[in-house]
Amino acid sequence: MEPIEIILADDHEIFRKGLEVTISRIPYIKSVIHAASGKEAVEKLEANPQVKIIVMDIRMPEMDGIEATTHIRKTNQEVKILGLSMMDDRANIVNMFKAGANGYLLKNTNKLELLEAFQNMLAGKNYYAKDVAEVFLLKEFSNSTTLKKKHITNDITTREEDILRLICQQYSTREISEILCLSEKTIEGHRKKLLDKTHSRNIAGLVWYALENGIIKEAKG
Hints:
Blueprint: E1 4-9, H1 13-23, E2 29-35, H2 38-47, E3 53-57, H3 65-73, E4 80-85, H4 90-99, E5 103-106, H5 111-122, E6 127-128, H6 133-141, H7 158-168, H8 173-180, H9 184-197, H10 203-212
Parallel strand pairs: 1-2, 1-3, 3-4, 4-5, 5-6
Helix pairs in contact: 2-3, 3-4, 6-10, 7-10, 8-9
């Protein structure tokens, strides 16, 4: 992999320096550019368009990570944005993804998880913190209902869409097979195809894809 540059945006200098030490141990990281606010992250990206990844804290002064991500996505769809948050920032994490983030990690992340996140995002996949992704997303969207389709890939069949909707409602493979009168092996096959077609790593990725494409909507209350 060719060396890349990243922007590290967080309003706490001590945290930035500590995370830089971890990030700098990743072989292909050429340099780390610091930003103390969302506004500064936007400015640093404009001055350094070669940057491939922005590690973006959600809560920052002047312009928070959500606002900064929204601003960046108006003109730049290429740079990968990795949100950072504490475990209880559920609403902010949802809004971060809606703004255009490619993934999120908790602030207690380690080198291996950062490496995995970077590699997945650079490969065009979304990344979610392992410890809380599935629980978080499924809790937020488990009561979802159907919406009008927006931009679902034509590769997803009607049957796969039905299965995806049931997965998002936390039905097990066995339960889905009973509902649709299909074998568990067939359901597992569709599940694997869905992961591949949506470029998802796990169930959390499927849930987010379904939300983003209007197959389900965010539960209220």
